[in-house]
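Input record (Table S2, row 246):
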Amino acid sequence: MHLKDQVALVTGSGRGIGQAIALALAEHGANVVVNDVVEESAEQVAAQIEEMGVAAMPVVADITCEDEVKAMFTAVMDRFDQIDILVNNAGITQDNLLMRMSEEQWDTVLAVNLKGAFLCTKAVARPMLKARRGRIVNIASVVGLTGNAGQANYSSSKGGLIALTKSTAQELGSRGITCNAVAPGFIETEMTGRLSDEAREQMLGRVPLGRPGQPEDVAGAVVFLAGPGAAYITGQVLIVDGGMVM
Ligand code: NAI
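Output record (NAI complex):
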């Protein structure tokens, strides 16, 4: 229970990896704000968390819209008067070959995966600076390090998110705020459920641990980076991929 009485906000936590992160933070004692664009999902996960004996607050907000992001953090401060942990998890894919990728596909993916994380980080910085403490964890991807054919938009957004992680770590470090990234490999969620059997087999063939990752595998790394054991770690990228990229 090393996160007892802390308040965490996880973007896009209505399902998938974000949901697992929200539940794991709650398991360690944190009160959790469950953000998503899908109201029903946010409410379901918040109800699941309340059953664990900590407080949960569902907030519907589109992280690409600064007004909605600001209103979300104002509502969190009104309710809890503190925010200790931000996990920028919400992310989308719209894959296509570079030559066929539309301007809209580029803009939409960059807006959620990179601008959304920037807006949330900007909004959380003030209360964290005031408190002189805070943990920010960005969910990037191994393709942000390696690139990936068919994912120019997504891999660029994740590479940008890694650079945002390091800039944030440098700007906010002197006030006791850490910022790190977790870079998952192939994790079984609805996002990867769309892959063909062939693509899945090909991906698994590159994983030394021989199995796809589960959302809980990513959540474990986030709990570590949000906890006391990671107090002197900032600006780092922790790869959680069963050894796929090394
Ligand atoms: P998912 O598609 O299952 O869940 C994403 C959640 O984010 C959904 O609940 C969705 O409603 C929400 N969301 C989407 N746009 C939003 C917005 N504008 N504002 C607020 N919420 C929004 O995805 P999954 O697989 O759980 O991925 C979570 C994160 O992990 C993403 O950033 C993804 O890029 C990253 N990741 C996933 C990997 C995988 O293999 N599944 C691998 C590497 C990284």
